[in-house]
Amino acid sequence: ARLNGSGSYFSTPDAAANNSSEDVFIAAWYAADDWTSGADEYVVGKYEGPGIDGIAYGITIGATGLMAFYTASDGTTGTQDFTASSTAVPFSDGEMGGIAAAFDDSANEVTFYTTTDPSLTPSASVTWTQLGTVQTHSTSIYSTPGSRLRVGAWYWSSAPGGEITGIVERAYGMASADPTAAPTWDFNPAD
């Protein structure tokens, strides 16, 4: 699905399947028009407010091409934590690639991954390559945010922001840091 960076994104209501209070693995197949656009792009996650304490988790691509994972322990900006990868995403502008973050709550660590496998590869069969080094991330996930799961933007003060410019082929997540586990939610525009 092409997202143009100007109010185009996908969302689904808050549900048990897209909430987690501990470990989480989030993946997306994304072709950024510009991987180092100079702006933070919110690829997939739960980030909404103010007023509903709706920040839970997600992945972004930063202004310089670093992937980042975010959480907020109570759903507010006061407890949010962004942890960036130590290495930039290796894809060229316009190139489709899989990006992912695995958060291990008990170890307080996030591991970033990339893949060149096709987006419709079954989750248990994707070959993920670690991106840089494992990073410390000590803020837990707010498990009941009430916010929508969004692909392509965050939502704040009744307006989208952090919109991506590019193509998203798929995104999925699971309440496990194991990338081979079965997804609990799966966004597939081809469905």
Descriptors:
about 190 residues, mainly beta, eight-stranded antiparallel β-sheet, about 0% helix
Task: Give an overview in words.
The chain has 191 residues and is an all-beta fold. The protein contains no helices and 16 strands. It has strands spanning 2-4, 10-12, 24-32, 41-49, 54-61, 66-72, 80-88, 97-104, 109-115, 129-130, 135-136, 149-151, 154-156, 159-161, 165-174, 185-187. Strands 1, 3, 8, 9, 10, 11, 15 and 16 form an eight-stranded antiparallel beta sheet that branches. Strands 2, 4, 5, 6, 7, 12, 13 and 14 form an eight-stranded mixed beta sheet that branches.
- Mean pLDDT figure: 88
- What is the beta-strand fraction? over 45%
State the distance separating the first and last CA atoms.
11 Å
Give the H and E element order: EEEEEEEEEEEEEEEE
For the largest beta-sheet, the strand count, sense and barrel status come to: 8 strands, antiparallel
> Structural class from helices and strands?
mainly beta
Multimerization status: single chain
**What integer value in Å does the Rg equal?**
15 Å
- Which percent range fits the helix content? under 10%
